[in-house]
Specification:
The complex is a heterodimer of chains A (about 210) and B (about 230). With about 210 residues, chain A is mainly α. In chain A, about 70% of the residues lie in helices and about 0% in strands. In chain B, the strands form 2 sheets. In chain B, strands 6-7-8-3-9-10 form a 6-stranded mixed sheet, with helices on both faces. In chain B, about 35% of the residues lie in helices and about 25% in strands. Chain B has one domain: Rossmann fold (3-Layer(aba) Sandwich). Chain B is an alpha/beta fold and about 230 residues long. The two termini of chain B are about 15 Å apart. Classes of the chains: A mainly alpha (about 210), B alpha/beta (about 230). At the A-B interface, α8 and α9 of A face α2, α3 and α4 of B.
């Protein structure tokens, strides 16, 4: 649901270009793995949390970013606590939390279109070896169709429950894959129908 | 009046399947709103795909906008001038937001982002849907999706519209709105529809696709039946 995560705003964070945000994330992510002091990591965590307030993101939404990884973070904490120490377990969990929160802050304060455009601009120097427009369209399509594929999966599950079938990964996967491939074919036709013709790779059409 | 679209003796078959089109002749002139009917699987959508070059006929000729169109390159211009609205709006709304989706076509035609956004505003005003501009495409209602797909092809400034089942998943109010919009548009159009009331409200001419050929479904005399029509060259 990436496209639904953006929170409207005019804060400093919203105004920074996507390229600078992505570069900052790479630097922060790399830097965090060199920090071995719990106090400094805790300080980083406090700074990132304060950035959420600066960007006008409510605390509830901030906590929601950590929820999907919560179980994983708990497992990491337990494993590290028993195999090493409480300090190291806390340090590692805080490090991951910093990384997740920093990446989420970028998603929450950057429009999908700006993000895709930023990636396209960043890849421009590689245009001789990389079909830049296709790469950015691919990213955009992935973002757009994540919720659609989720919806298809739900529909297939409900149809199977309605016919008395309990959860069966293969019975769900096969129709979902078939419907997704069919949809992909139709979407590619829709894209070509709207004049996406930059050196098309469409063997059937070039016959 | 010269034809905008002209198909002559078009045949088509999908691989390993029986022939779906068996000598289709069709012409569309400026200002016409031609409605196509026919049973499911009769080949109506296939006909649209042939007109814009997404499929190539196994036999026969496609003339569009005054020229014969044979190879992929010939159809680039056709796709700009003939806006195809697909049967399933979810297939056509492939960008995350409404504005991005409508801007996709104009940007492919070489417009700058600012020019494309100006076009987005214009077409959304034209269909009275400016409120949808920043909405997320997959969260729109069926009727809203349909209108946005129409806006997306209008943004490319087409001379012809090809509408495949435009009333699918649209409620009565949405259908009425669609009828109003289509009747106000200056473009010639071919509309595939199973809805007889909708066809009656917009069509200037109707044809039926049956057994791979196009027929005029209008009775030829007072007591004529329409179930065994005579094939015509149109």
């Amino acid at each position: 649901m990436l496209s639904g995560l953006y929170i409207e705003g005019t804060t400093f964070f919203h105004r920074i270009g996507p390229g600078k945000k992505i570069l900052s994330l790479v630097l922060i992510g790399t830097g965090l793995f060199f920090i071995r002091d719990l106090t400094i990591i805790a300080g980083c965590f406090a700074v990132i949390v304060s950035l959420y307030f600066t960007a006008g993101v409510p605390a509830k939404i901030m906590l929601r970013q950590l929820r999907p990884a919560a179980i994983l973070l708990v497992i990491i904490f337990i494993v590290q606590y028993f195999s090493n120490s409480l300090e190291l377990a806390t340090l590692i969990v805080l490090r991951f939390a910093c990384l997740i929160l920093a990446a989420s802050l970028i998603t929450l304060t950057t429009r999908t279109s700006d993000m895709v455009e930023g990636i396209e601009r960043g890849l421009k120097p590689l245009h001789k070896i990389l079909p830049v427009e296709r790469v950015s369209l691919t990213i955009s399509l992935c973002i757009r169709f994540i919720p659609t594929i989720q919806a298809i999966t739900e529909e297939v599950k409900e149809a199977q429950y309605a016919r008395g079938l309990s959860t069966n990964i293969f019975a769900i996967a096969v129709p979902v894959i078939i419907r997704t491939l069919k949809m992909a074919d139709e979407i590619s036709e829709a894209i070509y129908a709207r004049s996406f013709e930059t050196e098309p790779y469409h063997p059937d059409l070039d016959k | 009046m010269p034809s905008l679209i002209n198909l002559k003796d078009v045949h088509f078959a999908y691989p390993s399947r029986p022939s779906v089109l068996n000598g289709v002749d069709l012409s569309l002139s400026a200002g016409e709103r031609l409605c196509l009917t026919g049973s499911n699987g009769a080949g109506k959508s296939t006909l649209f795909q042939i007109i814009v070059g997404l499929l190539h006929p196994t036999q026969g000729d496609v003339f569009a906008f005054g020229q014969s169109r044979k190879v992929e390159k010939d159809f680039h211009e056709v796709r700009r001038l003939a806006g195809l609205v697909f049967q399933d709006p979810d297939d056509q709304l492939f960008c995350p937001t409404v504005a991005e989706d409508i801007a996709f076509g104009p940007m492919n035609l070489g417009k700058s982002k600012e020019e494309a956004m100006a076009i987005v505003d214009t077409v959304l005003q034209q269909i009275n849907m400016t409120k949808l501009k920043d909405r997320i495409t997959h969260k729109l209602s069926g009727g809203e999706k349909r209108l946005v797909t129409l806006a997306a092809v209008l943004a490319m400034g087409p001379e012809v519209l090809l509408l495949d089942e435009p009333t699918n998943a649209v409620d009565e109010a949405g259908t009425e709105r669609l009828v109003e919009i289509l009747n106000e548009l200056p473009q010639a159009m071919i509309v595939i529809s199973h809805d007889p009331h909708f066809r009656q409200k917009i069509a200037t001419r109707s044809l039926r696709l049956q057994d791979g050929k196009l027929f005029d479904p209008t009775p030829k005399c007072d007591h004529a039946q329409t179930d065994m029509p005579e094939a015509i060259a149109v």
